[in-house]
Every structure is written in structure tokens, then in C-alpha cells.
Design brief:
binds adenosine-5'-triphosphate, binds magnesium ion, Rossmann fold, 7-stranded mixed β-sheet, alpha/beta, 150 residues, 5 helices
Amino acid sequence: MISHNAAATQAIAASLALRLHGGEVIALIGDLGAGKTTFVQGLAAALGVTSRVKSPTFSIMNEYAIEPTKAQLWSQNNKPAKLARLIHADLYRLQNDAELSALSLADEQRADTVLIIEWPNAVSVDLNPDITVTIDHLGEDERAITIVAK
Ligand SMILES: Nc1ncnc2c1ncn2[C@@H]1O[C@H](COP(=O)(O)OP(=O)(O)OP(=O)(O)O)[C@@H](O)[C@H]1O
Ligand SMILES: [Mg+2]
């Protein structure tokens, strides 16, 4: 899909949110400033995260509660409203695999959790994503967004 502004990227992310059940690992690939965090903001809002999603550049990993009452999207689709958490990680600043192990990402991977990871290729470990989102910076505000599910 082609996006011409941040709001359009967030709307595309919201359309992906509709299809999530919980338990998914999403890899988010794109250059600095491509719009990865912007994408996560759209995904989070559509999932029912009410707090502001900030870049985990320095915190590495941020956790957000998904409010069941705000979970209109998947209850409308007759999915069980079991999604309780969104975890947003940014591996850009990790120096080595020991730092990755310290994060215990695998432990955070649960059936009630969507895990979305910026810069998954900053580590040599294969994070085995279920879905890969690639954002290509085409111009000032123009982005190509490709979503591939395994
Ligand atoms: N079509 C678009 N989609 C997404 N963001 C856009 C678009 N057009 C302009 N922008 C702007 O580009 C910037 C993207 O910043 P963002 O922090 O989301 O990038 P990022 O890929 O997470 O970068 P980093 O690798 O540094 O974490 C924002 O300022 C956003 O408003
Ligand atoms: Mg970012």
C-alpha cells in the first residue's frame, strides 16, 4: 500500500490490527524515520491502547495494556477478546545478543500479547515473526508499506 502521510500509515496499521488475535510477533522493517513508530501508534490505538505510544529507542521495550472495553474491533468480528497487552520493542541500540537475552522477548510472547519489534535485524537471532511489515521511504511523505504474513 502507498501512504502519503502519517495518518494514512496509522490507518493501514489499524487495518492490520483488525486481523490480530493475540500471540503474534510482528517485525517492523524500515530506515530511520521511515514511520515504524508512527505505524505502531496506529496499531495501538486500533487495538484499544489508550496511553500515548512513545518511541522505545532508549527504553528498548514498552508495554501497553489493552483495555477490554475498548476492544470493539475484534468483538465485532466475533473474536474472543483475549488481547491484553501490546509490547513495542526497538532493538536498534542493542549491542549484542546477551543484551537481547536480557530482554527475554520469548517470555513476553504470550497468547494475550501482540509483540511488535522495530529493527529486528539489529540482532543475529531470528525472531521468527508471524508478520513482517516493511516501510520503504519513497519521498518526503510518501511511503510504500508491505505486509506479509507467514
Ligand atoms: N506517510 C508517512 N508515514 C509515516 N510517517 C510519515 C509519513 N510522512 C511523514 N511522516 C513522518 O515521518 C516521521 C516518522 O517517524 P517515526 O518515529 O515513526 O519513524 P521510525 O521509523 O520509527 O524511526 P526510527 O528508526 O528512528 O525509530 C514522523 O515525523 C512522521 O510524521
Ligand atoms: Mg521508531
